[in-house]
Write a structure and sequence with these properties.
Elements (H helix, E strand, L loop, with lengths): L19 H9 L3 H21 L3 H19 L9 H11 L3 H15 L3 H40 L2
Length: 157
């Protein structure tokens, strides 16, 4: 029987080898305004997906994280010199599992969190990411059981 994967999410960035710390220093800090703007947009996009799926609580948390990232972006100067690699990095970060995204933002807070308002935004983002995990945990368990039941029925045919 095939192994049932709990999620398509992962805890690494496929296109970016190296430590998260290096990625933050070499990529995120290169264009912080753009990075937080892109994070905000990606989280808002995920909120809309959850709204369409009827997952109102998840949608609410994604929107809150989006707003917090937008506020973090406002602390930096607008930059014009960025490229599509910034968007790809953000996409890959947000597509990791919730714990890995929370860990990434905790590391980002340690590296970037220069003042108290930044730290407060990061703490709230991390709280929401952990809350998202708790909310979606039951959903993931239900999906795993449904897949297991289908595979079991298929094997018994």
């Amino acid at each position: 029987m095939e192994e049932i994967k709990s999620s398509y999410h992962k805890n690494y960035l496929p296109s970016y080898p190296g430590s998260f710390e290096d990625i933050i220093k070499d990529k995120i800090l290169l264009h912080p305004w753009v990075s937080f703007k892109l994070f905000s947009e990606k989280f808002l996009k995920d909120a809309k997906k959850d709204w369409e799926r009827g997952r109102k609580l998840l949608e609410r948390d994604w929107k809150s994280i989006s707003e917090l990232c937008s506020k973090l972006g406002e602390l930096y100067v607008d930059q014009d010199n960025w490229d599509s690699e910034d968007a790809q990095l953000v996409e890959e970060v947000v597509n990791m599992d919730y714990q890995s995204v929370a860990w990434f933002f905790a590391l980002l807070k340690d590296i970037v969190g220069e003042n108290n308002s930044q730290k407060v935004y990061f703490d709230k983002i991390i709280w929401y990411l952990n809350h998202l995990w708790r909310l979606s945990e039951n959903h993931t368990i239900i999906i795993k059981k449904e897949i297991s039941d289908i595979l079991h029925e298929w094997e018994n045919k």
